[in-house]
Amino acid sequence: MKKFYVTTPIYYPNDIPHIGHFYTTLAADILARWHKLKGEDVFFLTGTDEHGKKIETAAQKKGEEPKEFVDGLIPKFIEAWKKLNIDYSRFIRTTEAAHIDTVRFMYDKSYKKGDIYKGFYEGLYCTGCEAYYQEKELETGCCPVHKTKVEILKEESYFFKLSAYRDRLLEHYEKNKSFVRPESRYNEILFRIKEGLLDFSISRNSFKWGIELPFDKEHIAYVWFDALTNYLSGVNYLTNKEQKYWPADLHLVGKDILWFHAVIWPAMLMSAEIPLPGQIFAHGWWTFNKEKISKSRGKVINVDELIAIAGVDAARYFLFAETTFGQDGDFSTEGLLRRRDADLANELGNLVSRALTMCEKYCAGKVPVYKEENCALGAGEIKEAAISAVARCCQCMEEIDFSGALNGIWSFIKLLNQYVEKTAPWKLAKNNEKEKLDTVIHVMLEGIRLTAVLLGPFIPETSEKILGQLGLEAQEKISFENKAKWGQLQAGTPIKKGKILFPKDLTTKNG
Ligand SMILES: [Zn+2]
């Protein structure tokens, strides 16, 4: 059985889960669901990054122990993912014992190999990022991410010999052209590796909240070394000898943290002699009404606000139809409602509603018989289009092109709507052309069935509703090949017309 292991970055728990978190996590969920649909053995990891100075300081302010403090923050994330219908395999926390052991194992391996040495570090440090900056990276003396003043920090520190991995990284990049995607990001990282790599500090002793190094208890692990290791501990790399999920197939990340994933993480793995992940995909950022999303200006879209606009599925659809994955996008309530109305309500919802109404009215609520000889009405064209919609969807999902997949599905939906107009079943009914009428309605229902199958990973709740209305429940045991094949609907199956999908009047006054 083919396996698919996908990860999101682990999130800093002191934040409210906002678009920056849920965009990546939803992308991972869609891919995980897609690969499950294909019959693969899927592992989908997400979680929280709970160590570091920021947490220590925030806990102190509340008069709590750091662990007690983070324990109180986790339910917010678990709850948010549940609301968004995100079906992960494991939620890892970096405070778990198994993770801590794995981090110490990684340090130990590199230390014994001679890749870790002691030195002295002085640099410009942003507490928000938990990272040092070089002078040239700052924007008028401030952190480019947080726009706050950086501080000069000097501490005794252990260093990781990143410089020693330049050639091996270059070789890996040359051999694996899709190691980092999109291609522009691959080129950017490759260029920076060629420029040369500097050793960097991987321990702290200016605060306590972290993982003690196995070879020096005075030092704690650098948060990025700690956090990145979650991808191993998340699949029990240390204790599970028959490791079936590692190496990860895909790390999904925001473009701001690509360097850590595309350079530092592979070098850490090389040092510990662990195979590298298959691919790292960096997605873009969202603006909000064309303005940069920032907490300080109150422009953060949280999960409840998102769902309140038009429900979970409309939100899931909008985020992945609106913009090409990998590029930046602009979020607006109007944009979401426009897509909900045009694509989901008018194209998909209408099609389903019409087909089921006609099935009830003309076919006694049962899937009618399809007769090949009545294909003259264009059913052959629909069948061809269905086959190519499935092929296009498979191709796009392999390439992590969500909007491409959705565009393909919607072309098919539009074609089905045109087919209804062209064949005019109400006229066939009037003229008593029963066999032709049956075939047309069968084709509509079969087209809807296939659409619902392909949409499952994107809008799972809607997909399930549609399949239920077609009298198709418990589809888990049917292979993807069979589900995605044209002509699976059995004549005689009773349909169950349900509530209208994506009703517009709930959220808009005059839509
Ligand atoms: Zn910062």
Describe it.
With 511 residues, the chain is α/β, with parallel strands linked by helices. It has a domain at 333-483: Orthogonal Bundle (Isoleucyl-tRNA Synthetase, Domain 1), CATH 1.10.730.10. The chain is 48% helix and 14% strand. The protein has 18 helices and 16 strands. The strands form 4 sheets. A 6-stranded parallel β-sheet has the order 3-2-1-12-13-7, sandwiched between helices. A hairpin with a 2-residue loop joins strand 10 (212-213) and strand 11 (216-221). Helix 2 packs across helix 3 (66-83), helix 5 packs antiparallel against helix 6 (183-195) and helix 13 (379-398) packs parallel to helix 16 (434-455). The longest helix is centred in the C-terminal third of the chain and has 31 residues, at 333-363. It is elongated and about 90 Å long. It starts with a strand and ends in a 28-residue tail after the last helix. The mean pLDDT is 93. The site of zinc ion (ZN) has 6 residues, from loops. Zinc ion binds at residues 126, 128-129, 143, 145-146.
Layout of strands and helices, then pairs:
Blueprint: E1 3-7, H1 19-37, E2 41-48, H2 53-62, H3 66-83, E3 90-93, H4 97-113, E4 116-126, E5 131-133, E6 151-160, H5 166-175, E7 180-181, H6 183-195, E8 200-201, E9 203-204, E10 212-213, E11 216-221, H7 223-228, H8 230-233, E12 250-254, H9 258-271, E13 279-283, E14 286-288, E15 291-292, H10 303-310, H11 312-321, E16 329-331, H12 333-363, H13 379-398, H14 402-423, H15 425-430, H16 434-455, H17 460-469, H18 480-483
Parallel strand pairs: 1-2, 1-12, 2-3, 7-13, 12-13, 14-16
Antiparallel strand pairs: 4-5, 4-6, 6-8, 9-11, 10-11, 14-15
Helix pairs in contact: 2-3, 5-6, 10-11, 11-12, 12-14, 12-16, 13-14, 13-16, 14-16, 16-17
This protein binds zinc ion.
Zinc ion (ZN) is lined by residues 126, 128-129, 143, 145-146.
